[in-house]
Amino acid sequence: MRTGAALRAIFVRDLSILLKGALGRGGAVLPLLFFLAVAMLFPFAVGPDARLLARTGAGVIWVAALLAAILPLDRLVEPDVEAGFFDQWALRGLAEEGVLAVRIVAHWLSFGVPLMLAAPISAGLLSLSRAQLVTIEQGLLLGTPGLAAIGVTIAALTAGLRAGSALGGMLAIPLAVPLLIFGAGSLQPGGEGGLALLAASSLAALAIAPFAGGAAIRAGRE
Amino acid sequence: MQAARLAAYDIACRRGDRVLVRALSFELKAGEALHLAGPNGIGKSSVIRILAGLLRPAWGHVERAGALALCDERPALDAHQPLGEALAFWQRIDGGEQPRADFGLEDLREVPVGYLSTGQRKRAALARLAASPAKVWLLDEPLNGLDTHWGAAAQAAIEAHRAVGGIAVIASHQPLELQRLRTISLLEHLP
């Protein structure tokens, strides 16, 4: 099946560009450093009181994850629209929806997984307990796919706009708020249900994202 | 295999509030070529994009039989990749057919696309077009940036494509030297 081979080739290309960074795209390292920098700076700002850090730290990790997800937005879709990739794919009968679904997976692998790997370091810097770290990792596993989906949708919406990058952040933040609330909420005492709601929000974002993004790219051609 | 065909029925093209082209009709069968002529800004590229299905015509409709391939100003090759790998990406998508025309790219395979000149990039885009199995070629200013030698090579590739039952629509402000070429001047299709 040609479509399968094509999507596989696109996935390999997406992943190599998003991980290594090229064409002005920062790669996986930049959001990761940003994520760690927030966790490092926060204790400097509020003081080294371990109890305070342990109580607020989990929320800080979620805010950092959300902001790190916004960082690569402007380079996620725009360069490929600009270079004519999406036009060439469309001519080959590859639906934008399929291409964007592939890109969501590649984006998640290049930012969600590194954040999960970095979370133990952040947790150490914020003196979080082991139990909290486990909940954070579960939350990131369930929540970052949703953040990736929202990111790709917004990137597709703002591709080709002159102030696309600034606008992208402003549009992504409100959409990501449910993920932030449920993700941070799951760490409160008795907040275990937050993980289920987080997974539900993530799934909703994943279900809508390829179609919304595809429509945005088609509309952008007019 | 179904014979290639491309037909436009009374299409009109609007960009913003302005109608650029109206009442454009033609029908191309296997082996035929059409030259869309006219000065800059008259709507040649928009007509090509309508034929490609990337833009909706404001009026009329297009009928296509056979796969489409487009060669326009945007080569869709990754600037950081060596040319050989950038082309290989498309070959994996299009299927591993051998290029049917030589565009003198052998020596450039290791050079990152970003370092190529305009003409070299154009030749790469044409090489991808020639390697694709698509029967209907849509070319937007294919001779831009090419010197006389490669301009002739590009036209020879179009002739070779027609000889095996392909269709070509070429939007160009430059004169073309193709056999049995139909020419439509978009100046005759102004609103």
Question: Tell me about the biggest sheet of chain B?
Answer: 5 strands, parallel
Largest sheet of chain A: none
What CATH architecture label of chain B applies? Answer: 3-Layer(aba) Sandwich
- How far do the termini of chain A sit from each other? 31 Å
What do the pLDDT scores of chain B average to?
Answer: 88
Output the radius of gyration of chain A. Answer: 18 Å
Q: Which outline of chain B best applies?
A: globular
Class by SSE composition of chain B: alpha/beta
Shape of chain A: elongated
Assembly category: heterodimer
Helix content estimate of chain B: 25-40%
Q: With helices defined by DSSP (H or I, 4 residues minimum), what is the helix count of chain A?
A: 9
Helix content of chain A: over 70%
Decide which structural class fits the backbone of chain A: mainly alpha
Q: Treating each run of at least 4 consecutive H or I residues as one helix, how many helices of chain B?
A: 4
